[in-house]
């Protein structure tokens, strides 16, 4: 299998962590939608990463679909519980974390537009989604060690990648002060080799 992604993509990182946790071999092909010569649209018509190319050449996207597939093809370290109710809980956490990340990415993209074309109102609306999302994640985590149940799951991976992206792009957000339980979760996650080995480069 080949994974097409950039090293700074939080969604690509989510897939890379799942691959590492499940001990699945793959080849990383670095490409970015922001590169004018990128070849991503040839595999994903939406022009987004990550894209997983299966051994038969069939592409899978987006990250939520890819991680579902990876969790099903290998019994090692199941990350989505087989129980339907528990599985839906994990996917809900993933959806919230991914939604926060999407909003944060929109703020970043807006800041890269020419100043005269930027909308402060639009950026503020997206930042509000990030703030509300973090409050919900922190409230739902409460004093637990992991996001769902008593074990590490895809929920923790998605939240960890979201927090890592906020650290990279919004160093002034101070979420660790506002939500110390999330800072503790992040520290536990950062101690795992799968997180340490996929830490994004400094930007």
Descriptive overview:
- With 203 residues, the protein is α+β, with helices and mostly antiparallel strands.
- The chain folds into 2 domains: 2-73, Glutaredoxin; 84-192, Glutathione S-transferase Yfyf (Class Pi), Chain A, domain 2, CATH 1.20.1050.
- The chain is 53% helix and 6% strand.
- It has a 4-stranded mixed sheet with strand order 2-1-3-4.
- The two termini are 28 Å apart.
- 34% of the residues are buried.
Provide the residue-averaged pLDDT: 96
Number of helices: 8
Can you tell me the CATH topology of the largest domain? Glutathione S-transferase Yfyf (Class Pi), Chain A, domain 2
Q: Biggest sheet: strands side by side, in what order?
A: 2-1-3-4
User: What proportion of the residues form beta strands (DSSP E)?
Assistant: 5-15%
Return the structural class.
alpha+beta
* CATH class (first level) name of the largest domain: Mainly Alpha
- Quantity of strands, as a count: 4
Shape: globular
Sheet having the most strands: 4 strands, mixed
Number of structural units classed as domains:
2
Order of helices and strands: EHEEEHHHHHHH
Helix content bin: 40-55%
Q: Poorly predicted ranges (pLDDT <50, ≥5 residues)?
A: none
Radius of gyration: 17 Å
Please name the CATH architecture of the largest domain: Up-down Bundle
- Between the first and last Cα atoms, what is the distance in angstroms? 28 Å
């Amino acid at each position: 299998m080949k994974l097409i992604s950039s090293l700074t993509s939080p969604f690509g990182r989510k897939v890379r962590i799942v691959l590492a946790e499940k001990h699945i071999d793959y080849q990383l092909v670095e490409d970015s939608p922001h590169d004018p010569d990128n070849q991503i649209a040839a595999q994903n018509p939406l022009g987004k990463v990550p894209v997983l190319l299966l051994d038969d050449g069939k592409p899978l996207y987006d990250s939520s679909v890819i991680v579902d597939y990876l969790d099903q093809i290998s019994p090692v370290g199941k990350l989505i519980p087989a129980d339907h109710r528990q599985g839906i809980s994990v996917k809900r956490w993933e959806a919230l974390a991914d939604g926060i990340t999407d909003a944060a990415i929109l703020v970043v993209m807006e800041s890269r537009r020419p100043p005269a074309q930027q909308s402060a109102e639009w950026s503020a609306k997206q930042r509000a989604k990030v703030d509300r999302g973090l409050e919900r994640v922190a409230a739902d985590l409460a004093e637990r060690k992991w996001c769902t149940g008593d074990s590490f799951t895809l929920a923790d991976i998605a939240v960890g990648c979201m927090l890592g992206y906020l650290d990279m792009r919004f160093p002034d957000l101070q979420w660790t002060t506002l939500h110390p339980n999330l800072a503790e979760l992040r520290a536990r996650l950062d101690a795992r080799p799968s997180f340490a080995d996929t830490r994004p480069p400094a930007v």
